[in-house]
Design goal:
Largest sheet: 7 strands, mixed
CATH superfamily: Glycerol-3-phosphate (1)-acyltransferase
CATH topology: Glycerol-3-phosphate (1)-acyltransferase
Number of helices: 8
Structural class: alpha/beta
Number of domains: 1
Strand order of the largest sheet: 1-7-6-2-5-3-4
Strand content: 5-15%
Oligomer: single chain
Length: 234
């Protein structure tokens, strides 16, 4: 527990500094590359402070052009691991509440991340339309279809929103399996352990065009879940 508090004592101020610096960087560089560099370095330093190593496999499965990465979610360290290790510039679709955090939230907005208002169905659909447009314009995004962190490592039921987005954007979906992050920072515990996080990228999946909307989304949901579960270590 002491280790976790010491980590937070350093990581929270570090996050504040990187958020401010990243906001300034976006004023000087509109391409998003400077922001992505800040995000990757912030994540890398966060992992190093915690004594965490990340390994990625399956990079050869990423096709040319924008994609949607859909990952299981065991720990807050999933975000750091994906930011630090993914071989492509990524943007996040995240719950709206995160964008209300001082400095951190405005930084995310400046970085082109997309807020999702899950408490309002109409606004959620609007967010999906905005995200689909951004993806078609070239952004690759990451989302957690479970919507929240699992308590025991097993996959929670998937939310349908991500699969509506996949259909609207009409780009490949890359299922992602993360192992090890739940042991780094166990659910509902203020504890921190060093260790290894392993990220596996699976072959891309596409939404079946021949099916009706609801059937296509359901089929994609099932296929993504099966891919993630196939490499999940419990």
């Amino acid at each position: 527990m002491v280790r976790a508090y010491l980590y937070l004592a350093v990581f929270i101020p570090l996050t504040f500094l990187f958020s401010v610096s990243a906001i300034v960087a976006t004023l000087l560089d509109g391409t998003g590359r400077a922001y992505a560099w800040h995000a990757r370095l912030w994540a890398y330093m966060g992992l190093k402070l915690a004594g965490v190593q990340v390994a990625v496999s399956g990079v050869e499965h990423i096709p040319e052009g924008p994609v949607i990465f859909m990952s299981n979610h065991q720990s807050s360290f999933d975000i750091l691991a994906l930011l630090a290790a993914m071989p492509r510039q990524i943007h996040w679709i995240a719950k709206k509440e995160l964008f209300d955090i001082p400095f951190f939230g405005p930084s995310m907005r400046r970085g082109g991340y997309i807020p999702l208002d899950r408490g309002d169905g109409r606004k959620a659909l609007q967010s999906m339309d905005e995200a689909a447009t951004a993806i078609r314009q070239g952004k690759s995004v990451v989302m957690f279809p479970e919507g929240t962190r699992t308590q025991d490592g097993r996959l929670l039921p998937f939310k349908r929103g991500g699969f509506i987005l996949a259909r609207k954007a009409a780009v490949p979906v890359i299922p992602v399996t993360i192992n090890g992050s739940g042991r780094i920072n166990p659910a509902n515990q203020i504890r921190l352990y060093g260790g290894n996080i392993r990220i596996m990228l699976h072959p891309p999946l596409t939404v079946p065009d021949e099916l009706r909307k609801s059937e296509a989304e359901g089929r994609m949901m099932e296929n993504v879940r099966n891919s993630i579960e196939s490499a999940l270590e419990l």
